[in-house]
Amino acid sequence: MIQLEKEQLSRHTTFRIGGAADYYLIPEAEEEIREAVAFAKEKKLPFYILGKGSNVLFSDNGYPGVVIEIGKGLEKMEILPDGVVMAQAGIALSAMAAKLAEAELAGFEFAGGIPGTLGGAITMNAGAYGGEIKDCLLSATVLTPDDRILTVEKEELALGYRTSIIPKQNYIVLSGKFSFPKGKKEEILALMKELNRRRREKQPLEYPSAGSTFKRPEGYFAGKLIEDAGLRGYRVGDAQVSEKHCGFVINRNKATAAEVRRLIADVQAKVKETSGVELEPEVRLIE
Is 104 among the catalytic positions? Predict the structure, then answer.
């Protein structure tokens, strides 16, 4: 296990924002995840599980505890008969999508451009372009707060729009079991290419961000509400509502977490004032 002290979290998030974590641990095997959690408990410190840091905003003051990155060394994927796939929590969604395409297994194309790991995707039932993790997941293997390893069936995970029981129960995802139908490699790759083209065309990928900043309100689109409120391009310091897609808050250069939080609050207030809709952040705001 790799152990770092006073590690800058801006190096580990797609927003490129965040102060130092007291400890930054990178377990390279499932047993080391348990050791990392035990380390935090022994130090009487809180801990936070991180993948690729694509949906999180850490404080400028950093994290007063232990950040555990699940990625390197926890990226194995095994293809079993009948389209059943086992994959560890640290595998990048893009890598998993590419391997499934190579094996001519369809149904994961939507996830190929999501810049995260499987553990986070299962935790929040990640989705895009009409697909969600719950469409292909069979079960998740998790580490419980009392150090048990548990396999939880999909039906028990309460997978909804960007939610599941995993954070409520303080579970840590170790791996997932999936089922995919057989497809044609050229068709799968063509769909992935088309979805990635749409992403590049519509999303501000040229700037650091945490992806979609707000959850989609029922019956509305967050980006449209923000645009209608006159906030396209609105800035607080170097934090800005993207001019390309108003659903994204971007870091134009050296934005701070405080600036992003202020901008989020301003957007929520203005949208509430103009449309009566309360926007809920999708990005996790970590103190």
Answer: no
